[in-house]
Amino acid sequence: MPRVPFHYIDLRTFCYETEDDKRVEAALRTLLPDEFEVERVENTGHHGDRIVVFSARVERAAEVRDVLSALSAIEDFEGLVDELDERVTENCELFMRLDKQAAFGGDVRLGPGITFRAKVEAYPAKKEAAVENAREALRQAAEMGDEDESDADD
């Protein structure tokens, strides 16, 4: 993938008092490059319960490629690509939610728990251009993931 049309990708998840911090952070790390820094902020909920917010902002092109490659493992990846018009806002931001429980098991799926927000490059900064750029980048990431899998099989 020669060019990555994303300014950044933000990933965020919450760890509630009933959850294990290390497991929730591990779920988030499923989507991130190795050794990537994850920010941790402790908060207090409405009823006094502890809530830890784990977040990461990915800005470097190689690291953005890693995150997009992880997304290409989504079972209905083509369905995700087909929904981009609904997932990209007028501000050229791509949103989706990923399953935190599945991510802890190393599986990337759409579902509740992890918020994915990415700023898509588009010139001019119009939704249609952002959708097309995101579509092309996701397809290229999937092709690269397919190549990596075939290399591992050799």
UniProtKB/TrEMBL annotation:
InterPro entries: PAB1135-like, Ribosomal_uL5_dom_sf. This is RNA-binding protein. Pfam families: RNA_binding (PF01877).
